[in-house]
Specification:
The protein is an alpha/beta fold. The chain is built from 13 helices and 7 strands. The strands form 2 sheets. It has a 4-stranded parallel sheet with strand order 5-4-6-7, with helices on one face. The protein has a 3-stranded antiparallel sheet with strand order 1-3-2.
Length: 279
Amino acid sequence: MASDAKYPIREVSRLTGINPVTLRAWQRRYGLLQPARTEKGHRLYSDADIALIRQILDWLEQGVSIGQVKGLLDEPNPVAVGSNWEQAQAQLMEAAVQLNLGRLETHLLELTSLYPAELVLRRVIEPWLQALAQLHRPDSQLIEQAAQALLKRVFYQLLTIKSGPKVAIARLGQVRERAGVLTQFELQGMECRSVDLGVLDPTTLALAKGRLNYDAVIIILGAGLSHSHFQEMGTALPEHSYFIGELGSIYQRQGWLTQPFSVYVSDLVRDNNASFSLV
């Protein structure tokens, strides 16, 4: 066993934001990592391994597919070619338009097993959902509904983590249910468990005070909110409550937000040092 190998896989996940399932896939399928092993067979990673993981992440963020990374790491002057994210979006769209839900599910499972949750959501899933909503054809509604239903089912099935910080998710205002599902998926990528509280009524929040025994509460902000909504929540919000959602930027400019805010969970962690996160 290498003398400098000291980080178990959960600690590596905390340090890099890459969940253990993905780290194992990078090793088994692509030989990108070669961690040491304890006498019982548990993986141990070194500082050099962690530096390599971050280098891999840099390539992925540039749109390089995981299958191309090893070749680039071996090149003295590597140059990224093409965009893996655009190709992935095109594959999802083609399967959705053809109503080939089996192939669509295969693509989704492949993406979520090989890439960090944050990258999958920002670079593939969200642009693809926007493109679905902008389809102009007679069967566009059928295509969008079928694709979204499958997406929710697949992501719910992926929420299998049983340990780690526990985070409650709630929606406030006009927010689609899928926003909660996508947030839960992103939290799982941070090694956090989650539970969906559904649509939040600020006037009843005080009734739950003392029973929201979670490490954090994340409220997804939607349309149709007024200053009074935030005033009604007031002191009823438990400690470690946070706001997310694109429309939250509008409420923030109005000066209505009483809790830390970022558009995405991942930004929330980086911008506010959110205490619930292991990342």
